[in-house]
Amino acid sequence: MSNFYVGSEVGQLRRVLLHRPERALNHLTPSNCHDLLFDDVLAVEQAGKEHDAFSQTLRSQGVEVLLLQDLLAETLAVPEAKEWLLETQISTFRFGSRFANDVRCFLGDQTNNEMAAILLGGLSYGEMPLPSSSMMSGMHTENDFIIKPLPNHLFTRDTSCWVYGGVSINPMAKRARQRETNHLRAIYRWHPTFSGQEFIKYFGDEERNYDYSTIEGGDVLVIGKGAVLIGMSERTTPQGVEQLASGLFKHGQAKQVIAMELPKHRSCMHLDTVMTHMREDTFSIYPEVIRKDVKCWKLTGDETGAVNVKEEGYFVTAIEKALQVDQLNLITTGGDNFEAEREQWNDANNVLTVKPGVVIGYERNVYTNEKYDKAGITVLPIPGDELGRGRGGARCMSCPIERDDI
Predict the structure, then answer these.
(1) What CATH number does the domain containing 178 carry?
(2) 367 and 324 inside one domain
(3) Which pLDDT does position 268 carry in this prediction?
(4) Active site at which residues (predicted)?
């Protein structure tokens, strides 16, 4: 068995993938941020410092931190990987053959680290000095993007998620994020850390149109004991859940998937923005969204990959059964209604558990952090005044690659 194994949400975290954003945030402006799925522009240097504090907090807990840009640059050192990424990310269908060729030539002249930075952070017409005879360059201004930035790569949780002994390389719902998936495909296929290792790819590794079968890792909670909890949100569809469940059952990696229906709005974009697992029997929840009447289904299956679906009653009971605990302890967002709504917007519920009962969360969420503390949960606070504007907390910004069972 490989070391790539995520057996729970709360067991000791050992290795994690993060992305320190810089170039993409430099390209984020008030006029383009909404298209790029951000509500606001961030102070770039400050966001970088806050991210470093997050990495440092993880390292101080004995967690190995891998950084996406480093992995991508090291992947580009493999000629086959570089060729594949230039073909897929700079495709002739996207750019026209003449211009695609010019852009590839320009990128091919960069160092691997510069090329990785451009693929992740974008490239404007003004930043590519090579003249091109293509119609494309004649029809754009220098501030238009040739390659759009990917500021959401900051949220490494979504693009791929490790579930027990394998990974789902997720087809993303929004156009602004779809290119991210190819970076992870390339890393898991060619990067020396991953290539030649034995791990399962459940879903999403082929280049094809996945149509409505989209899934994002923020909706996937590996709650342990062979169970996976998945939220069907604005970004994760029932079709996507069935595809992933089928892969899990086919490879004998999960006994059951519990799927919950979420409202399709921005404040609860993913399940982990309204519910996270902090200790074997303890979850944080935002009660405005995670209500008693949330619809919930249990999916089971076998090696044929067939999926059986059965509607369940109260989702808490389904989780208690799956985790074999008598009673779940649900900690609700802190403060009065106004404070709770504000803190949920600032990701008070989106904490990253490092080991049972120890979580990383934004220091600004004082009321909720106080409630965690009273419930015996230790919060390791990180600054998030800038990072939090991207609408994602510590769990969103991390992709666990190795974590213990419960």
Answers:
(1) 3.75.10.10
(2) yes
(3) 67
(4) 396
Mean pLDDT for the chain? 93
Tell me, yes or no, whether 121 and 175 share the same domain. Answer: no
Residue 367 tokens read as 């009321």
396 is catalytic: yes
Structure tokens at 294: 């949330």
Our count of domains for the chain comes to 2
**Based on the domain organization, do 138 and 171 belong to the same domain?**
no
* pTM, to two decimals: 0.94
Same-domain status, 125 and 222: no
Q: How far apart are CA 7 and CA 165, in angstroms?
A: 8
Which CATH number characterizes residue 127's domain?
1.10.3930.10
Q: Which of 99, 125, 147 delimits the end of a domain?
A: 147
pLDDT in tens, 123-168: 999 999 877 888 888 899 899 999 999 989 999 999 999 999 999 9
> Same structural domain for residues 290 and 222?
yes
- Range of lowest pLDDT (276-280, 339-343, 378-382): 339-343
Mean pLDDT within 37-53: 89
HSE at residue 218, side-chain half, CA atoms within 13 A, is: 31
Q: Which of 123, 147, 171 is the last residue of a domain?
A: 147
Q: Which residue has the tokens 């074997």?
A: 280
Per the listing, tokens 């952090």 go with 369
- % of the chain with per-residue pLDDT over 90: 75
Domain that holds residue 77: 71-147
Q: Distance of CA 398 to CAs 39, 317, 352, Å?
A: 20, 28, 8
Same structural domain, 298 and 396: yes
Q: Which two tokens stand for residue 167?
A: 């990974």
> Is residue 119 domain-shared with residue 258, that is, in the same domain?
no
